[in-house]
Design brief:
2 domains; about 25% helix; 7 helices; 6-stranded mixed beta sheet; alpha/beta; 5-stranded mixed beta sheet; Nucleotidyltransferase, domain 5; about 280 residues
Length: about 280
């Protein structure tokens, strides 16, 4: 196993451009966000969802195709960020963290290979280390294309934004960040992270099972605690409808909670809070 730095640098193509690029990488799809840093406006936002889960090599082929076919990606960028959105991650409190134990942190809750590269982000707002496996073929492609870039795990972005939003609150609240094939449950109380986990789902029944199971494990009463949904969901969505059926206080995260927003929703929560 290897560990590595989070910002990759070389004399490169990064220019004095006003544009910044963020790419969310998942085996089920790719999302692209181009920010005009002068106006703080979204210049381009695009998601490509695959018919089936890709292999890392097939994902690289898809990414290459996107760069060849999407004209907005032909710009020069002053900053490039890659978000590795996968289940190959775990949280470790910083006081207990030892860089020599990265393999041990991951091997108990995910399958890792001897060839896997393992790294970590420091979530300073919670003094937590996010240990994970990035897709190095994607990193290498971006390095060859742009030179300098930064990469991080999606968990780091999600938790940082939610804990920032909750920094002046003492209330217990459950957030659900919903993507196409998975969702994260984040529970905060007294400005601290109480629970975090990621769940794969195929049906609305899977979704509500994990929500209610988590509530039961944390001894939370569905009649009392608030649930905030964000990401790929709205009030007409079946996931919202079934959550509303079983939990009394359900809402959609306001777009005001986003660093950048393209409409009135919290869609692309991870991507639009990454720059």
């Amino acid at each position: 196993m290897e560990t590595g730095q989070k910002i990759i640098l070389k004399n490169n193509n990064i220019s004095e451009s006003i544009y910044e690029l963020s790419i969310q990488v998942n085996l089920n799809g790719l999302s692209f966000f181009v920010l005009n840093s002068m106006s703080s406006k979204i210049d381009f936002l695009e998601t490509v969802i695959f018919d089936k889960k890709q292999t890392p090599q097939a994902l690289l082929d898809q990414l290459t195709h996107c760069f060849n076919s999407l004209e907005k990606l032909h710009k020069q960028f002053r900053k490039v960020t890659i978000i590795h959105d996968n289940e190959l991650a775990t949280l470790v409190p910083k006081p207990l963290f030892d860089e020599t134990n990265l393999v041990d942190y991951l091997k108990f809750n995910t399958k890792i290979l001897k060839t896997d590269f393992i790294t970590y982000d420091h979530l300073s707002i919670a003094d937590i280390m996010v240990v994970y496996v990035p897709l190095m073929n994607i990193n290498n492609f971006i390095f060859d294309r742009f030179g300098s870039f930064e990469y991080k795990h999606s968990t780091t972005i999600i938790l940082n934004r939610i804990l920032t939003l909750e920094k002046n609150s003492n209330l217990l609240k459950m957030y659900l960040n919903i993507e196409v094939s998975h969702f994260e449950i984040i529970v905060v109380e007294n400005n601290k992270l109480k629970f975090y986990n990621r769940f794969e789902y195929n049906t609305k029944e899977d979704f509500i099972y994990y929500l209610l199971f988590t509530a039961e494990q944390l001894h939370l009463n569905p009649e009392k605690f608030p649930v905030v949904l964000m990401g790929s969901v709205d009030e007409n969505d079946e996931l919202y409808q079934i959550a509303y059926k079983y939990v009394r206080h359900v809402s959609i995260l306001s777009k005001d909670a986003m660093l950048y927003s393209s409409d009135t929703s919290s869609k692309h929560f991870t991507l639009l809070n990454s720059l």
